[in-house]
Amino acid sequence: MAPNDSTVGTDGAGAPDGAGTTRTAVRRRASRYVVPVAVAGVAAATIGLVPALAASGDPELPEITAQQLIEKIAASDTQTLSGTFKITTDLGLPSFAGLIPSAASGSSSADPQDRLTQLASGTHTLRVAADGPDRQKLTIVDGSDEYSLIHNGDDVWAYDSKSNEAFHEKTEGAKGEAPEKELPSTPKQLADEILKAAGDTTSITVGGTAKIAGRDAYQLVIKPKQSGSTVESVKVAVDARNGTPLKFTLTSVEGGKPVVDAGFTKIDFGRPAASTFDFEAPKGAKVTEGASAEHEEELKGLEKGFEEFTGSKGGLNVIGEGWTTIAKLDTGAPAPKTDEAPAEVKGFLDSLGDRVTGKFGSGTVFKTKLVNALMTDDGKVYVGAVTKDALVDAANAGK
Length: 399
What we know:
The protein is α+β, with helices and mostly antiparallel strands. The chain folds into 2 domains: 30-291, Clam (outer membrane lipoprotein receptor (LolB), chain A), CATH 2.50.20; 313-396, TATA-Binding Protein, CATH 3.30.310.10. The chain is built from 7 helices and 18 strands. The protein has a 12-stranded mixed β-sheet with strand order 7-8-9-10-11-1-2-3-4-5-6-12, with helices on one face. Strands 13-14-18-17-16-15 form a 6-stranded antiparallel β-sheet. The N and C termini lie far apart (48 Å).
C-alpha cells in the first residue's frame, strides 16, 4: 500500500534561493572531491542517486508523512557502507569530443578537479566505501580502467590506472573551522526548519515505495509549483530502516530521459575492511603533489575578489526566488561573435543556442534540459534552471 501522500510547501527545499542562503566555506584541498561519510546521502542531496534496478514489486510499508520522512533522513547516522551504483546524466548536450583540451603540461591526469567532470555526462559505474569521517573511497570503473579517490586520515590519494599517474595531497588545516550559522541540533528541528519556509513554490509528498538494491524504501517526491522552472520533479528513495537516501531522479519539463538517473545496485552498511583505504603508488607511477599553502592563499584571494565583484554595482544580481531564481550578470562588454570562433566550437555553440529578440534587444539562449542562459548582444547574461521564455521575460523587464 502507498504511504500517506501528505503535501507540504517550501521555498527552500530542493531549489536555489539566492536571497536567503547561508554561504558555505569553500574547502580548497583535494579531499573536497572525496565522497564524504554517508556517501549515498550526500550524493542524493547533490547530484542524486536514482532508481536502482528493482525486479520485485513495491514493498508494503507503514504509512509515513512527508515531515516524518524528512526527520528520518535527518536522523540517519550512517557511518559505514560499501556498494555499487550507476549514474547516468543527460543534460541534452551534444558531444564535447574535441572541444575539451587535454591536461596542461605538468598537470596530472589523476587530478580530481579534471577527472570528476566526466560524471557530468554519460553513464558511469562507481564503487564507494566509507568508514566514518576519516576514511572514504570512490572508484569510477570504465571498462578495464579505474580511477580511484582515497581519503585515509590526513592523506588524499587519486590514482588513474590508465595513465599510471597518482595525485597526493594532505588534508591538515581544516580543523577548528566554525560554522557560519548555528545548525539545527535534532532531526525534528531540521525538519521544522525546512517546513517553516512553507509557501506556494514547492510540493513535497511521499509518493509510494520502492525496492532499491534489495532494500525497502519510501519515495520522497519534490515538485515546483511555480511555472517557468525547467524541473519537473525530484524523487529521492529513502531506506525505510535507517533513513539513508538510496536513489534520486531529476526529471525535466522537456520530458524524455531523466536529467540525472543513478541508483545503488548493491549496498552493505557493514564496516569495510581497513585495507580498503590503504594505498601505495604502484612502481613507476608518476606522482603529483597537491596545491601548496601559497596556492591556498592565492585561491582565497581570488574567492574574496569574486565575492566583492558579485556584490558590487554591475556584478551579479539575483532575480526572483525559489525554483525560478535567475542570476543576472552584466559583463560590460559586447557578447563574442560565434562567427569568429573555430569551426568545431562554432558548430557546438550553434547547436546549443537559439537567437531571440525582445524589448531588451537581441541575444542568444544557450540551452540544456536543466539550466538555460541568455546572453544579450550588449553583454548581459541571465542564467537559471528556468525556461527560455522566463529568461526573455526577465530581460524584457530590465531587471
